[in-house]
Amino acid sequence: MNRIPELERLKNMPHPDVPQITFAGHVHAGLNLLRHRYLQRVKRYKGNATTICEHIISGVWNKKFYYTSLGHYKYFWVRDFGTVAESLMKLGHEERVHKTIRWAIHHYRRSEKVTLCIDYLGQVFNAPEQSIDALPWLLHAIVVSGYSLSDRERVFLEVQLLEYKETFLTEDGMLHSGHYAELRDAVLYHKSAYAVAMIARMARCVHHLHLAGFPFPAAQYKDLLLKKYWNGHYFSGDAETDAFSAECALFPFVLDIFDDHGMATKTFDYINKERLNIPYPLHYTNKPLSFHYRWWAVSPLIMPNYAGTTIWTWHGVFYLQLLKKYNREEYASEYAKITDMIERFGTFPELLYPDGSWYKTPAYKGDEAMIWCAIYLALNVDQSTT
């Protein structure tokens, strides 16, 4: 039975009483940034790296949903949650993961839109603009956690898939030209490899969940990544540059779009050759001038080099995941670097300067106690949920 006409009807129905995406969420987020920069000291946790991370994972749970951090990102980001959902499951937090998904979908349904962020009041918003990866990460979290969708939730997601297709894709499923928020949100990409990998992952989730509304197969995007983005050493940043960008290079492997030992080996060898893992893994890029940035990411007073040659711990733990998966010899030494970093700062930082010091500018201080440390903790858990 073709359900698309009915979904189209639901999508186009007027709903005047639905809460709209609000600027209040942005206001709260901005105030949190300033408060954290000038009024809040970074909290150090006692103990070894494992104990520190366990304290953080306990702290980011607020009995309704998981925060992204205990600093200025103390609200819900579906992207960050999506990247750690499987790790949280391995750590035994199934009930909390499912509660978070249920809470998020409830607020998304009220606003009839899947957005990147939800604040503690349930107000949905995007940052810095509409996100291409919010819906894919939500579906990914549902799949890896085994969350059981209600009929109403299924219909809502199918309508969202139709809207996603119309917003971001051409009639044949290819990415529209244009800018949107994605993981490296300081950069204005032109059809990034990360975005393509996320759509491929979403297509697999749609198939797994038997959802209507997205007709394009994952293989279509896998072929595109191989033909247009693989340069013989890594998946390049986007359709306009051959430069290395950590999330674009890693996520086709992290999401299992590719499981190719030879390709992964070439990527790891490039990282070693360019010293992108020194003093800690992983620098975003070694060619920052190859990318176009949002204005606030180049302003010397706001967030200069925020997503340039800085070290991002998020990518550091993804990198560890892959080193372990592919039995790389350097896994032990890279794991030791991340362990040393956690114990040095007594927390799990968002990002560091290229020399390994805490990122701080007149307007912004790198966040602390990130939920990403769940990935570090799960490295020593053998259980698999996929």
- CATH second-level architecture: Alpha/alpha barrel
Write down the CATH class.
Answer: Mainly Alpha
Q: What is the chain-wise order of helices and strands?
A: HHHEHHEEHHHHHHEHHEH
Strand content bin: under 5%
SS content category = mainly alpha
CATH topology: Glycosyltransferase
> How many individual helices?
14
Reading side by side through the largest sheet, how are the strands ordered?
1-2-3
Unreliable spans are: none
Q: Mind summarizing the main beta sheet?
A: 3 strands, antiparallel
Shape: globular
Q: Helix fraction?
A: 40-55%
Taking Cα atoms only, what radius of gyration do you get, to the nearest Å? Answer: 20 Å
Averaged pLDDT: 93
Q: Termini, distance in Å? A: 29 Å
Q: What is the count of β-strands?
A: 5
Number of domains: 1
Characteristic terms for this protein:
single chain; 386 residues; mainly alpha; Glycosyltransferase; three-stranded antiparallel β-sheet; two-stranded antiparallel ribbon; 5 strands; 47% helix; 3% strand; globular
Q: What can you see in these coordinates?
A:
With 386 residues, this protein is an all-alpha fold. The chain has one domain (4-13, 52-378): Glycosyltransferase (Alpha/alpha barrel). The chain is built from 14 helices and five strands. It has helices at residues 4-12, 24-38, 49-59, 78-90, 94-111, 134-145, 151-168, 193-209, 218-229, 246-254, 261-273, 313-325, 331-345, 373-378, and strands at residues 76-77, 117-118, 124-125, 311-312, 351-352. Strands 1-2-3 form a three-stranded antiparallel sheet. Helix 5 (94-111) packs antiparallel against helix 6. It is globular, with a radius of gyration of 20 Å. It starts with a helix and ends in an 8-residue tail after the last helix. The model has no long low-confidence stretch (mean pLDDT 93).
